[in-house]
Protein 1
Amino acid sequence: MQVLEAVLFDMDGLLVDSERLWYESEAEVMADLGAPWGPEDQESLVGGSIARTVAYMLARTGPVADPEDVGRRLLAGMAERLRANVPMMPGAKELLDEVREAGVPSALVSSTHRALMEHALDGIGRDRLTVTVAGDEVAHTKPHPEPYLTAARILDVDPRRCVALEDSPSGVDSATAAGCHVVAVPSVVAIPEAPGRTVVSSLREVDLPRLRSLVG
């Protein structure tokens, strides 16, 4: 019987109720660039990298601003919001604490840059996680498997004996390609059931025995 070696958590939309904060920051920047922003735009980008978001925005507006400047403005808007409050998703702290108290290694695996992740960790609690991997610390972000393979390597675990929890299609693809069992908790975009994937509506439906059962 296989043993659960680690639990790997996404951040935005999974642990932290931040997709609405991203939407506010994106809409604010787009208003400054002179273009509208709607829910369908966010759906196209959920779970992606800053670079992808900036490229999408400037494809909409034309070359009206420097991409690096747009990226800095997005990150600054999010940092300001996270400094004010880090809203946790229902069941997130309880699951993190259950995993930690059981002595199971864990990782935060996010497409978000380290500087912004640090603000979120103030609310999540650094002691709740064994390691963290940020989007600007890998060569390829989600949906590439590198973020999850990097976390598994740092933890010295087999990704095939890990469960990854994700809220976005790109995150699910990343974890699946790395060989992890996946629990999907869709936030902005629907995620269908699939082999090797469990779909739930909330982290409140997930506990450590259930995660262990997915590997065993």
Protein 2
Amino acid sequence: MSHYKTTLPDEAATQALGKQLARVLQPGMSIFLHGDLGAGKTCLTRALIHAAGYSGHVKSPTYTLAEPYQVTLQSKPASIMHFDLYRMGSPEEFLDAGFREEFRADQLCIVEWPEKAEGVLPEPDIELFLCIAAHGREVELRALSDKGFACLASLQFAPVL
């Protein structure tokens, strides 16, 4: 499957999607999260990181730009690097910070506001779009690599509507 779209009626459904994604993602992948402020990007990421086994506080890296987490993906120890690029002024800041080196085979990278580093980010495996709708959130996932296609094909998610 290369494309998945649904409605998330509430925060619990957004969290449920994050939990299901944690079951199908693997190290070496990158996910780009698109959406306006308050669309649920951090909520989804927080649920994903907790479902992958991290028990501590998952904060939004709005001011630090990146936060690392030690988790388990596909039954193996792994790392997740959560980026929030909202406050970045230019793509060069991403390079200057050395963030491109974080996109490695042993780490899952989740990037909020990827458009802030357009042109310097590696291509994502999955793009996820969240949009505030009349009754919750609209979510769309697009696979852009073989790993992304495999993940979406394995995704078993049906929100409670």
